[in-house]
Amino acid sequence: MDIRHLGTVPYLPTYEAMRAFTQERTAQTPDALWLCEHPPVFTLGLSGTQAHVLAPRDIAVVPTNRGGQVTYHGPGQVVAYPLIDLQRAGYYVKEYVYRIEEAVIRTLAQFGITGHRVAAAPGIYVRLDDPHSHAALPQRPRKGAPGPGVAPDFTGLGKIAALGIKVSRHCTYHGVALNVAMDLEPYSRINPCGYAGLQTIDLSTIGVHTTWEEVAGVLGKQLTVRLAP
Length: 229
Hints:
By secondary structure, this protein is of the alpha+beta class.
């Protein structure tokens, strides 16, 4: 996998570059992983509605073709864009999402934090009362858990990583954003991922003081391992 550290880059040109890469790639094109951070921007997924953008004010809102609702990108957030040929890798979209989430969970574990999945709500969450707790969530995904159309239960949780992907001709783009040390105020201007009242947190809020570069390095390694064929 070709790993590229892009630094701080504007969102829209990066989105256009991902889309072009995916459209132009062939069966021989190596997979890639782009790691970056963006200046402040709200992005809308295909199911996103302006009703969930409450007060953008000075922050641009960019419609995209990824799945999901509205989210925020800004300084202090590691954004990872895996550009993977799933047909060549040998796994399907559901497995791909699971592997990305697992990479985030393993990354958080290296900083002493336990990440959790929530049924019917892609992304990774942390217990607000005890971010180190390994106790299983009652609202975790499991056989017989509520399916699509049932509202997720975010009780006692904060969202620390958001996931939104696009698959075109078996190839992925967009990706995952992990919050490290951000100004979290812009999240109050939206209903994050379409859920009013969903609390968003970062590592610094829960007592982990590290650098963007360190988290990007760990997440990049974890994604490289977890997304391997």
